[in-house]
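Supplementary Text 2. Reproducibility record for the structural model of the 271-residue chain.

All settings were left at their defaults, and a single model was retained for analysis rather than an ensemble. We include the record here because the model underlies the residue-level annotations in Supplementary Table 4.
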Amino acid sequence: MQHSAGVPLPHPGPGHGTGGWAQPGQGQRPAPGWPGAPVPGQPHAPLPQVPPPPSVPPQDATGHVRLPPGGPVPVPAPPPAESGTGSATLAVLLIGPAGAGKTTVARHWANSRRVPTAHISLDDVREWVRAGFADPQSGWNDHSEAQYRLARRTCGFAARNFLANGISCILDDAVFPDRPVVGLGGWKRHVGPGLLPVVLLPGLEIVLERNAERSGNRRLADEEVAGIHGRMAGWYGSGLPIIDNSAYDVETTARVLDDVLARSLASPPNW
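Retained model, structure tokens:
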């Protein structure tokens, strides 16, 4: 083979050719005249051994943080004073009877934060089941109880996944104080000890009015609403923060909720 100027190309030496280029640290020496080349009359210095490149663990192409298996949510650090919850990444459980405004307030609070925040509604997740949905209005039984537990575990996993990726979340559920293992204890197991519960409990008249505005399987009989509201009164004296939003609009209730959560971060409730 000839160079363009007619000078023959040097013959490929050992280690050259198709797929045979010498690698660093495998016997390759610099040519005479280059730095590090052997000097005539002096013994050759041993070639330095080039360490192999460090192995790099594969990364998720989506950029999401891998969720640790079953990792509980730690208690977040308290935000600076007089700033509400600020930029804290936290998990909130908003408790209350049907008609208390949990879903509306939770959605508004999540929308109004300055940092990424997700809203997870237990009822919405339960209604993912279409065929075979166990409607509690038809009677609470083992089937509806199983779907409730499944929805709660699904919400708990979603909350941990959001939190592992730096996104706060607020969950809402009608948790009863007289069923601690199934209700509050279950949420604590599925989300972690850093979960901050707050009870939203307006007066019975307000709850009945709001329930009357509902439609479909979200609307309950007045007798059932009154019974649920009476059971929720058991949260008084539990040590959990309670907000009576009877005279508050949605924006005011969300602002009060943020203040309550800031105090809970500074002094977490014992539950």
